[in-house]
Each structure stands twice: as C-alpha cells, then as structure tokens.
Amino acid sequence: MKKIIFTAIALTLAATQVTVQAQDNAITKFFGEYEKREDVTQISLTGKAFDLASKVDATSDEMKDFKKFASQIKSLRIIVDDKDPAARETAARAKRTVSTGFEDLVTVSEKETLMNIMVKEDNGIVSELLILVGTESEFIIVDLIGAIKLSDIGELTKQVSAVGKNVFAEVAYNPETLKVYPNPVVAGAPVSIRLPEEMEGADVRIFDASGREVEAYRATAAEKRFDTVRLKAGVYVIKAIKGDSEMSQKIVIQ
Asked: Which of 119, 145, 222, 242 keeps 20 to 30 A from 54, CA to CA?
C-alpha cells in the first residue's frame, strides 16, 4: 500500500486504525470493492481515535481546528485510487449507488472532473458526510459519520483533506469559493451569492425541494444579493452553470 503523509495528529492516531462498519450498506459494499487492493490508499479511523485526538495538546492553529471537530466524529474512511482511467465515471457510479438518503450539498461538474459533497442532515445536524471525486485518473471517496453542525461542514472538509487527501486539489473551482450567506437565512431576509471569478457570466438558477425553478439570473458580477420574500421556508438548491462547469450548493430558508 502507498505511504501517506498524515498531519501530526493523524500520525499519532495511525496505530488505532481499524475497519469501520458504516451505517449505509451501499457504502459498505462500495468500500468493499477496494478492501483487498494494495494499489490504493485506504485510511480508516474510529471514534476512539478522534476521542484521543480531542485530548491532545494543540499548539498550531491547524491542530486547534482539528481538535474542534474531533469530538464530533465517530468514524472516518477514505479511499484514494490514483490509477483509475475512468475515475470520473467511477465517481458518477458511486453517486448512483450510494446516494439514497443523502442530500446534495455541493456539486462541481467539469469536463474531466466531478465532485459531489452530500450529507444526511436533520435540523442542522449532519450525521453523515460523503465526498466523491473523480478526475481524469484519480477517484476519491470519503465517508464520515458523526454529529456535526451543517454550518461547520466547509471547515470540516478542509480538515479531512489535511488528514488524508486534498479532495479539492484537482478541481479548478474550489466549491468553497461558491459562498451563500447567511445560510441558513430567515425567510424574507436578503441573501448573497458569491461565485468564483472564473464563474462570472454563469447562469444561476435556484430550485425548491420539488425541483421547481423559483429564481434565475445571469451572473454579471461576482456577487448577487436578493430578497427571499417570495420564497417559503424550506431547502433550496442554487446551481451555477458556465460551459462545461457546474457548481451547486444548498441553502436553508427558515
């Protein structure tokens, strides 16, 4: 198996690595396809490992950020296959296989790259985070189980990347650069959507939970501010499309 350079905290935990039983049978089956392969990177950490991490003295800012989330995580599994000639299709197949019960949080679709960040969420608490990435030759799947605030998912994703693999490295438009704030937002209050510079000129469409388009505009500037007075409380998906590139993110109106 390939050697992996962990963060300092991950090195401390390496001795506690075990195979984690996921809650979703489809995900377990998908991970099982890679279980006996020695040509892929596999990382598996249990809740005990993260409990230990939460008690380690933190000195650097990165370590402090990691400790912030450690107590909220029950298990983490990562697989990286950097020799998959059809990695983008593998990611698409994985999404079709395991996405039942998950909500799309962020999607980035480019000509040679596909990324999906999905969550199982209830009342603002995420019980499972699933990240799928497929590039020209690299497939990545990350499955994290815990109890994390939806508002912390962006920062947590960066911490997961530090442990094993920078899941944003092969994506031209980092999904973190698509910002929707405030999120959640109170019904009737204004909300801002900020796109990365590369996505200026994109067609932006907003859909409700049934898939009905409720708002649409052309992004002539990086940031757009609009009122939600015509939108009812609920979950909406914002999609920005420009050529072969597509980004999407969820917004909650309370």
From this structure: 119
